[in-house]
Amino acid sequence: MFRSTAEAIAASNISTVLQDVSWLVPVSQSIHIVGLSVVFASAMMINLRLLGVGTRGRTVSSLVATLSPWMWRGLLVCLATGLLQTVIEPLRQFVTPIFWGKMLLIACMAMMTFFLVRTVRLHSAEWDAPDRPPVGQLFAVVSSLAWITIVAFGRFIGYVWALYA
After folding, report:
1. What is d(CA 137, CA 111) in angstroms, rounded to the nearest whole number?
2. Contact at 8 Å (CB) between 71 and 42?
3. Backbone phi, then psi, for 7, in 5-degree steps?
């Protein structure tokens, strides 16, 4: 479906120049993994707190206020490195349904996280109370499963893309 777009990108001047830099893909992938690790760790810490793990530590609002900027910065790093990787190897990304599933999940999680952060900021007393809104537990479960799936999908792109190329 996106093959013609991928082929056009692969034939572009910038893509052909970047393809000739042998160290660019491994370095970009390494930085991408670091960015994803920051996002994943921050999300899991928030999710575990929403599930009631570590209740004697920081409040939900304090933890969200501290970790959400790290998540957004990590996502920006992943966006930049992912864009670079897509320009260098567009066929590897665009033709794989798993890539598009990963992108959809990331977009959904970014929106859900934005709304969670905003809601916690506006209603911190409710979220810091022992009987916090039950939607927090639902968010934590959905978020945890989504981020685990995103990591798995990202990993599988490297193994299945040749089936679609």
Report:
1. 17
2. yes
3. -65, -35
Q: Which amino acid is at 2?
A: F
pLDDT digit string (tens) for 39-93? 999 999 999 999 988 767 789 999 999 999 999 999 999 999 999 999 999 988 8
The alpha carbon of residue 153 and the mean position of all alpha carbons in its chain are separated, in whole angstroms, by 11
For the residues of 88-99, what is the DSSP string, one character each?
HSHHHHHT-HHH
Terminal CA-CA length for the chain: 11
Q: State CA 122 to chain mean position distance.
A: 24
For residue 119, with 0-12 CB atoms within 10 Å meaning exposed, 13-18 middle and 19 or more buried, which class applies?
Answer: middle
Instruction: Indicate the DSSP class of residue 118.
Output: H
